[in-house]
Amino acid sequence: MKSTEKYRPNVAMILVSHNYPQKKEIFIAQRNDLTDIWQFPQGGIDEGEEVEDALFREMEEEIGTNAAEIVAAYPEWISYDFPPKILKKMKPYKGQIQKYYLVKLSKDAKIDIHTKHPEFSDYKFVTVDDVLNLTAYFKKPVYEKVIKYFVKEGLL
Fold first, then answer.
1. pLDDT digits over 62-100, tens only?
2. Could you write out the three-class secondary structure of the chain?
């Protein structure tokens, strides 16, 4: 595989509120560098870092808390390619290969997107359908696949 065909190891999370499973409210955040792009928190896995350690580190870095518990994991790694605009910024990677988790925020979790290196300008809790309506076109197939799995499992 050429270096231009590499996929960046990444962890992503579908965060649900502390009201889960009674209410299936999903956290989604608006990127501060791309207009009207909403997404799940996610981030790179450092070399030698365990995936679940990266999950909680990225959660804290992006939304200011790691007060949460893992509900379930998507059983496979799933990848997507970057669109041309993002590809230039992310070289030598062609895209990302991700491990997805369904994660429940603790009742005492305090979300703060104004972190040391903010990635988001806003956030909200939405329904499954709203997530798919707000998602970036290049991530939508991945989101659909992962959400469909968790719905089929009775988790969303």
1. 999 999 999 999 999 999 999 988 888 888 999 999 999
2. CCHHHEEEEEEEEEEECCCCCCCCCEEEEEECCCCCCEECCEEECCCCCCHHHHHHHHHHHHHCCCCEEEEEEEEEEEEEECCHHHHHHHCCEEEEEEEEEEEEECCCCCCCCCCCCCCEEEEEEECHHHHHHHECCCCHHHHHHHHHHHHHCCCC
